Amino acid sequence: MTDLPDLDQRTTPADHRFPCDNCGADFRFEPGTGTLTCDHCGNTSMIDGAATQAVSAIAELDYRAALNAELPNADIEETRVSTCPNCAAQVEFDADIHATECPFCATPVVTDTGAHRHIKPRGVLPFALAERDARAAMTDWLGSLWFAPSGLQDYARKGRAMQGIYVPYWTFDADTRSTYTGERGTVYYETRTVMRDGKRHQVQVAKVRWRGVRGRVARFFDDVLVLASTSLPKRFTDALEPWDLSAMEPYTPEFLAGFRAEGYSVALEAGFEEARAIMDRTIARDIKFDIGGDRQRIHSVDTKLGAITFKHVLLPVWLAAYKYRGETYRFVVNGRTGRVQGERPWSKGKIAIAVLCGLLVAGAVGFIMAMQQ
Hints:
Elements (H helix, E strand, L loop, with lengths): L26 E3 L5 E4 L5 E3 L14 E2 H5 L8 E8 L6 E3 L6 E3 L6 E3 L4 E5 L3 E2 L6 H14 L5 H9 L4 E34 L2 E29 L6 H6 L9 E2 L9 E2 L6 H24 L3 E30 L2 E8 L5 E3 L5 H25 L1
Helix pairs in contact: 2-3
């Protein structure tokens, strides 16, 4: 997690526990609703403003101000975070938890008591899928895999509950104006005579006529999404997209009740570098469209960026990490859509049987063909 400069006023630690006003037990957020539920007495409480504010109500923060440590104190918070010694995940824990397992890799973790200062989330996409639905999606996905161990699917179906984790992301907005130089290619054809089988044939050969061009393109980028965590393979989290960011709520800690939140480990500036690469690829496509013609070459691009803003947001992921026959398998489920990604398990026994069956079939086919000759 990025260290932030000391501020004049210390912020208070984030508290994701909310006692039931009826029995005093902890509320938890009920996925797919705007309510908190007490598992002890069944009492419910509506989250103020849930599902009533549009995404436009989520204020952006100034990127340059953040780099210069000029953000208001209200945009900074302290949380109690422990770092996993195996995968380096930084996960928030309640004050009364002293030892647990890392939800990302199932490694035992002894929690520390240090407070970490970071940029406060501005938006949260609440869970829409309950744990039972996420588990069903995961076991169905395992069952659809060829040569996956049957035991792992059974273990996952009957094993411990999946963990609901809010994973940190950055979103970036920017107004871009780009000037470019390049070439536009026009395809034309020349007729040539070639020899085939001792005979002359006329063929059409494609050629390209290039002409130098220059121009300007402009685009406003809205909510370029960048993962702010290094705990999970990026190929997993990228494959969970798309996220329905239009359903995002302004951040309030009630949405985190009963769940965990991972602290960001990708610094803001590093996150913007990745966002800039995404923007540059889109700008290159815009330039090729602007050049037109049949082919395009880009020689130089000069992009000016203005009005750069960002948000720290939390997106919902159901996570399972299972140790099965000495191997750790991790699975992630989009907490909104149920899309599943994970480590691809293989069953050596099933593969061996398939190879043996293939050899037997090939041998039988070869024997039949030999008998027919």
